[in-house]
């Protein structure tokens, strides 16, 4: 296993924090192409960890393996002490209530209103909320936290790209998860809307006290939200450290990310 | 070499469709049953095809009667018109043409809908929301299509016979009662039952192929278009194969 280039920074002390999510030696190939080649990661409680990598570096594959949407070829993924790959469907669904997922293209259900989109996970994860009858307060609370309570009866097609991303974040938050996975949260958005989303991510993290894993190749997003960063190159964690420490690095591959 | 690859791809697709069918039957009997979604899909699929089936049926009735009448007149056999039209519509033309129009509308619709859901990660979002997307999206749509097509075919056949009656009434001055008495004299259960049974298989094939193409849609808008298009082509081809098998079996048991 290749050791990552450790770009030390004295401002972060991880020894006192508990990992809530851990990936060990994750490997995934598609045909002859190895996408993840022994990737390792630890996400600590309350931490904002950014994974940066070029397009096609395997970031989205890694995050899909994390929620059991894809099976890795080898390696282990432990979320809140449970091995994802060893869980049956019911236990995996239970664990998924603790993981919010913001998809790259929002992934709102086209045929449902904003209200129905938010109600969907509430009604399906019965083991967390029981047979919930009045979903209105929870839906409104989630929409309020992203500042869109007036869109409750609109269809996703009536919303702008930024609004769709915020509604998708509200849908991820409605289950009050402990971990939120952001897959390219600012991709396809204009710079102003991107800034709004980044600000919202920070606010949400403070309000809900979540641990966040942010997959991005947006340097501005990484700078604002990250406490710690991992650079994913050739399917392995090439370098780790804070944004400032990595930016100051003289390594050619690391510098390429900050140009 | 292009040819062997195409043959290999064809057999691979047949294999994948077989596996998909096996998964459908496995998930069909597993709890939870998505009853509300099934009702919604029955309404969507049935309601969406109602006008198309009605118009198609009506025109089939008009055209068959108009085309056949001169020939029967030549032999002085106009009184056989209701029997001839009813048997050909109920046994073959009604189910096959209505199923083909249904395939054009529903298989492409399901293929495009599921395809775009796959491409925009809505199916993945459903999975992480604690829902089995195969059960929620595929099982309900295939069941709805299987249940709705026979009803639509019966409705379409009835409208087709009514269309035929209108032409007969205009050209031959036949009363409604006389026309339909002749129709029911000519028809036997051996005509109606096998024809209705095969429409369940038609509906199943249309729903299944539409879902299969959409569920495994390739990335991008091109993939969605291709899924919708190949869903119609594949399901239409499958309809004729099922029809041949159904007629063959009917011939053995009902002696047409």
TrEMBL record, chain A:
<dbReference type="Pfam" id="PF00005">
    <property type="entry name" value="ABC_tran"/>
</dbReference>
<keyword id="KW-0067">ATP-binding</keyword>
<protein>
    <submittedName>
        <fullName>ATP-binding cassette domain-containing protein</fullName>
    </submittedName>
</protein>
<keyword id="KW-0813">Transport</keyword>
<dbReference type="GO" id="GO:0016887">
    <property type="term" value="F:ATP hydrolysis activity"/>
</dbReference>
<dbReference type="InterPro" id="IPR027417">
    <property type="entry name" value="P-loop_NTPase"/>
</dbReference>
<keyword id="KW-0547">Nucleotide-binding</keyword>
<dbReference type="InterPro" id="IPR003439">
    <property type="entry name" value="ABC_transporter-like_ATP-bd"/>
</dbReference>
<dbReference type="GO" id="GO:0005524">
    <property type="term" value="F:ATP binding"/>
</dbReference>
<feature type="domain" description="ABC transporter">
    <location>
        <begin position="21"/>
        <end position="259"/>
    </location>
</feature>
<dbReference type="InterPro" id="IPR017871">
    <property type="entry name" value="ABC_transporter-like_CS"/>
</dbReference>
<dbReference type="InterPro" id="IPR003593">
    <property type="entry name" value="AAA+_ATPase"/>
</dbReference>
From TrEMBL, chain B:
<dbReference type="InterPro" id="IPR030802">
    <property type="entry name" value="Permease_MalE"/>
</dbReference>
<keyword id="KW-0813">Transport</keyword>
<keyword id="KW-0472">Membrane</keyword>
<feature type="transmembrane region" description="Helical">
    <location>
        <begin position="187"/>
        <end position="212"/>
    </location>
</feature>
<keyword id="KW-0812">Transmembrane</keyword>
<dbReference type="GO" id="GO:0005548">
    <property type="term" value="F:phospholipid transporter activity"/>
</dbReference>
<feature type="transmembrane region" description="Helical">
    <location>
        <begin position="80"/>
        <end position="103"/>
    </location>
</feature>
<protein>
    <submittedName>
        <fullName>ABC transporter permease</fullName>
    </submittedName>
</protein>
<dbReference type="GO" id="GO:0043190">
    <property type="term" value="C:ATP-binding cassette (ABC) transporter complex"/>
</dbReference>
<feature type="transmembrane region" description="Helical">
    <location>
        <begin position="50"/>
        <end position="68"/>
    </location>
</feature>
<comment type="similarity">
    <text>Belongs to the MlaE permease family.</text>
</comment>
<dbReference type="InterPro" id="IPR003453">
    <property type="entry name" value="ABC_MlaE_roteobac"/>
</dbReference>
<keyword id="KW-1133">Transmembrane helix</keyword>
<dbReference type="Pfam" id="PF02405">
    <property type="entry name" value="MlaE"/>
</dbReference>
<feature type="transmembrane region" description="Helical">
    <location>
        <begin position="142"/>
        <end position="167"/>
    </location>
</feature>
<feature type="transmembrane region" description="Helical">
    <location>
        <begin position="224"/>
        <end position="249"/>
    </location>
</feature>
């Amino acid at each position: 296993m290749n050791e990552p280039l450790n770009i030390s920074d004295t401002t972060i002390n991880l020894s006192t924090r508990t990992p809530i999510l851990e990936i060990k030696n994750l490997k995934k190939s598609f045909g002859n192409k190895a996408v993840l080649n022994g990737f390792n990661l630890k996400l600590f409680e309350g931490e904002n960890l950014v994974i940066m990598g070029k397009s096609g570096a395997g970031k989205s594959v890694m995050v899909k393996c994390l929620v059991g949407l894809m099976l890795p070829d080898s390696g282990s993924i432990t979320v809140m002490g449970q091995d994802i790959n060893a869980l049956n469907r019911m236990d995996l669904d239970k664990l998924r209530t603790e993981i919010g997922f913001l998809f790259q293209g929002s992934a709102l259900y086209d045929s449902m209103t904003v209200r129905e989109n938010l109600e969907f996970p509430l009604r399906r994860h019965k083991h967390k909320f029981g047979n919930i009858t009045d979903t209105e307060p929870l839906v409104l609370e989630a929409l309020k936290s992203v500042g869109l309570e007036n869109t409750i009866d609109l269809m996703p097609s009536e919303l702008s790209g930024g609004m769709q991303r915020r509604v998708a974040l509200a849908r991820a938050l409605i289950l009050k998860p402990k971990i939120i996975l952001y897959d390219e949260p600012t991709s396809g958005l204009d710079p102003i809307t991107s800034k709004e989303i980044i600000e919202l991510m920070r606010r949400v993290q403070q309000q809900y006290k979540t641990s966040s894993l942010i997959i991005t190749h947006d340097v501005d997003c990484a700078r604002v939200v990250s406490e710690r960063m991992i650079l994913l190159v050739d399917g392995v964690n090439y370098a780790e450290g804070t944004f400032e420490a990595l930016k100051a690095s003289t390594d050619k591959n690391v510098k390429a990310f900050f140009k | 070499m292009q040819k062997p690859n195409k043959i290999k791809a064809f057999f691979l697709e047949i294999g994948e469709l077989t596996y998909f069918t096996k998964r459908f039957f496995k998930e069909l009997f597993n709890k939870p049953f998505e009853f509300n979604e099934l009702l919604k899909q029955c309404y969507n699929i049935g309601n969406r095809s109602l006008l198309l089936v009605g118009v198609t049926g009506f025109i089939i009735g008009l055209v068959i009667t108009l085309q056949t009448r001169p020939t029967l007149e030549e032999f002085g056999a106009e009184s056989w018109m209701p029997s001839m039209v009813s048997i050909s519509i109920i046994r073959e033309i009604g189910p096959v043409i209505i199923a083909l129009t249904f395939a054009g509308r529903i298989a492409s619709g399901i293929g495009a809908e599921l395809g775009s859901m796959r491409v925009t990660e809505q199916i993945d979002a459903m999975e992480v929301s604690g829902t089995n997307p195969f059960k929620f999206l595929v099982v309900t749509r295939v069941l709805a299509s299987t249940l709705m097509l026979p009803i639509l075919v019966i409705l379409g056949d009835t409208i087709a016979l009514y269309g035929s009656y209108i032409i007969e009434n205009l050209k031959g001055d036949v009363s409604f009662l006389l026309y339909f008495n002749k129709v029911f004299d000519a028809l036997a259960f051996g005509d109606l039952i096998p024809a209705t049974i095969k429409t369940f298989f038609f509906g199943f094939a249309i729903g299944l192929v539409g879902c299969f193409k959409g569920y495994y849609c390739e990335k991008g808008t091109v993939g969605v278009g291709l899924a919708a298009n190949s869903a119609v082509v594949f399901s239409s081809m499958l309809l004729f194969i099922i029809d041949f098998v159904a007629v063959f079996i009917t011939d053995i048991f009902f002696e047409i």
